[in-house]
Amino acid sequence: MWCRLWESMSENIVSVNNLSVSFDYQENFLSKKQKIKAVNNINIKIKKGSFFGLVGESGSGKTTLGRAILGANKISNGNVIFHDDERDFDLTSINSKEMKEYRKKAQLIFQDPYAALSPRMTVRDIIAEPLEVMKITNSREETDERVRDIASKCRLNLEHLRRFPHAFSGGQRQRISIARALVSNPKFIVADESVAALDVSIQADILNLLKQLQNELNLTYLFISHDLSVVAHVCDIVAVMYLGHIVEMAPSRELFSNPRHPYTKALLSSIPSIDPENKSRAIELEGEIPSAMNPPSGCVFRTRCPHASKDGKEANIEMGLVEVSPEHWVDRCGVNCA
Amino acid sequence: MTHLLEINNLDVKFDTDEGRITAIDNVSLTLDQGKVLGIVGESGSGKSVTAKSIMQLNPGNTIYNDNAEIIIDDENVLKFTSKNDLKKIRGGKVSMIFQEPMASFAPAIKIGSQMVEQLMIHKPLDKNEAKNISIDMLNRVGIADAEKRFNQYAFELSGGMRQRAMIAMALSTMPKLLLADEPTTALDVTIQAQVINLMKDIIKEYNMGVIFITHDLGVIAQVADDVAVMYLGSVVEQGPVNEILKNPMHPYTKGLINALPDINNLDAPLTPIPGNIPSPLDRPSGCVFRTRCPHASKEGKEANIDMGLVEIKPGHWLDKCGVDCGKV
Known about the structure:
Chain A has 338 residues and is an alpha/beta fold. Chain A has helices spanning 2-9, 62-69, 96-105, 123-133, 140-153, 170-182, 200-217, 228-234, 252-257, 262-270, 332-337; strands at residues 12-25, 34-47, 51-55, 77-83, 88-90, 106-109, 188-192, 220-225, 237-242, 245-251, 321-325, 328-331.
């Protein structure tokens, strides 16, 4: 395993090693401080040029993981390394000067195109702001040229640059957000639920645009979504998260045709089929995702797992991914119970 | 045979500062007892306004046309003016479930009190009877510890639990008609699957008529018997769910299906519908879909067409303009 990792190291753009992120939580000022582990011992490598999908339900830690990779959340344990061409950025020991440099390389596209754009700025100013804040361009002409260039790549009408966001529909706004994220010429993009707020006919357009920009600009994506059919369509490799852990990770075709972990199976069967004759009932999971404040011991999925044993031996299992077939990783407990 | 619900020639317009906008244009629908009618469409297509018209929940600037009818039990809801008449509909014969359960419960009143309050308005019950019915309903929808939940506030419940409580509350008055407006959209997929299964069982058990509004064709395929596809306030295609989803004829219905990522066919490209949904302020004349239609003619003759459904096969209704353009 390790030698394979070493071999592929050179082409990874992000390596996440044993990453944990916890938050302090205090119910009120009298009660004791608690630690909430939002992300637990995550190991992922994101290859250059890949479309890496991260799926899971609300509260599974997808967004926290994405933010930790961008340096927007404090890392409690482990490390995140961003491999640039000449140098590596280690996000655990990064200083503020390097952080500024890193921000040019890694950017975020938000979920809600209505909340993400300032209503008081013109589209041109919204897209140009990162260039000005990061002091990438030296003159207004240069800024304008970069803005126009990226706006046309994102299929925005250049005549619209002088307008304000309220004049635009959801799909156009999301294209403005994408242009803003891409204007500093980053290499790595975290797209956090970037199509979740859009209508289906527009969602398809934005997904196609993301794909096209990836080829044109040589981008690598971390695509965070709760929608499995979207992830299945655009991603090359997919990791499934549950309560802060990755329970399964595989190339997307492999994952969707041959899911191994009971949680992945349940998720897949929960997608309502568009074929009315396919009335197979979903594998119904009991209850809901437990609170991260007191997660189950051992296998975190055991409280909802259809295969959980009566004697509760899963409570004493240590979680961890094992490779069941090339590049297909499944949590240990999920391998045995299925 | 009389229908449980009959909507005839409904137009809904809103008076706004920017002018009078058309939200619903000449919609006619029928629903029978025990059936689920799915209404599907994108944002701004008028799905929710249709449902709210049945409950008379549209805001004060709403204008209905004079010849519109929404008939429940031989009575035209649109002619109701007194509060007492409306009470028969709202929460009585008709209940509604909304998308965001957190926003539908009052945050500072216990769930139980809210359930009891509305039950006592509609049924001649005393407080204790109403409480027993409410707890029984909470049990029915699969809420564990119903008695404890009865005394809790909405924020103490998780999203799936809140939606169950909402369903319990809507059903406790035994409505004949349930309006479910995107009831599963805010939920995670595994919870959505639970709620869909629950709703299917309850619909069967109570033999209600249901209008199920969603933008998700997959959910429609799983719960509905009939489906109406709406675009910019008009129904463009309508019929049995199996027929419409397997054999869609209108370019908009086809477009919706093609834009949907299908997990069973990963090689199919995602085809967006070109362009954007026009603003209701400049609703296209003639065929409303013509600005985005792949079959629209160059000379723009669709601008002068009257819209209207024609039956192309038994039960399968299609907009006039969609009949011709699909053949080309």
